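[Discussion] Sanity-checking designs against the backbone

I'm trying to build intuition for which residues belong where. Below is a structure token string of 257 positions. I'd appreciate it if someone posts a full sequence so I can compare it with mine line by line.
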């Protein structure tokens, strides 16, 4: 009797699971364009709850301030950090989804790159100082280029952020501008951990990180260089990477006018 019950039970379980999996397997036919739109919409919609959560935590901190235990304070700080990380990720995903769908607007215009670059580098002085990294610029007097200043700023931020992030304390980060008017280049060089040859073609892929655990600690998702690549492509440029483990990395972005 026991075996009969067992066999009936197994048969019912198999039947149930196969009918359940059949139901779950019915594919929804989405076109590629619909999938792109879905990702763009999802990223866009995620921004609102994230910013509400952030504001709510601000209110909790404000209203409870001193009454909070050190543990509660720590939890709130951690949550805010995670929300910040997720917001950046959602922002990056949105940028990539829009760029895939061809809906990122690039506002190309002529402007002097030199003062802009000086200003952008200034934003990194603080983080560089914290790690005792010497952040130096080698810039010409002036260089008029054609491009979208906001997007080029994003590109420089991604490269500088990585250069500082992947360079140990007391290292060096140099940013230069090669003013050859037909092929101007932005060069970001660091004395950091470097990138093995096998990883070099892959670091521009979405979500690719060389050392998953290490970069996770640094709060990165592996989307920065994928965005950088899209910005470079939109400017009809190209990136050359020279790097070796322990010898630092040099990213040269070349733009043909
Ligand atoms: P992340 O947000 O992880 O920095 P990126 O797309 O910007 O994502 O970079 C992808 C991976 O490439 C990084 O996780 C890191 O492993 C590697 N990488 C990028 N820039 C550098 C650099 N300057 N030095 C060493 N490794 C780097």
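Best answer:
Here's mine. Compare freely.
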């Amino acid at each position: 009797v026991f075996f009969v019950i067992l066999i009936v039970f197994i048969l019912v379980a198999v039947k149930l699971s196969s009918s359940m999996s059949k139901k779950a397997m019915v594919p929804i036919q989405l076109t590629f364009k619909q999938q792109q739109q879905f990702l763009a919409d999802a990223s866009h919609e995620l921004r609102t709850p994230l910013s509400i959560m952030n504001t709510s935590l601000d209110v909790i901190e404000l209203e409870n301030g001193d009454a909070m235990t050190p543990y509660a304070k720590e939890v709130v700080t951690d949550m805010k950090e995670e929300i910040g990380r997720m917001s950046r990720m959602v922002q990056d995903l949105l940028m990539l989804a829009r760029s895939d769908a061809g809906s990122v607007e690039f506002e190309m215009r002529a402007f002097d790159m030199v003062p802009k670059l000086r200003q952008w580098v200034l934003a990194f002085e603080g983080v560089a100082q914290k790690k005792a990294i010497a952040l130096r610029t080698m810039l010409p007097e002036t260089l008029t280029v054609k491009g979208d200043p906001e997007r080029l700023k994003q590109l420089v931020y991604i490269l500088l952020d990585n250069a500082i992030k992947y360079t140990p304390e007391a290292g060096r980060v140099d940013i230069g501008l090669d003013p050859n008017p037909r092929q101007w280049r932005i060069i970001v060089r660091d004395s950091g951990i470097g990138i093995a040859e096998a990883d070099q073609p892959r670091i521009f892929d979405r979500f690719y990180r060389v050392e998953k655990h290490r970069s996770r600690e640094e709060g990165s998702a592996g989307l920065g260089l994928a965005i950088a690549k899209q910005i470079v492509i939109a400017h009809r440029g190209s990136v050359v990477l020279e790097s070796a483990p322990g010898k630092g990395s040099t990213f040269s972005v070349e733009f043909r006018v």
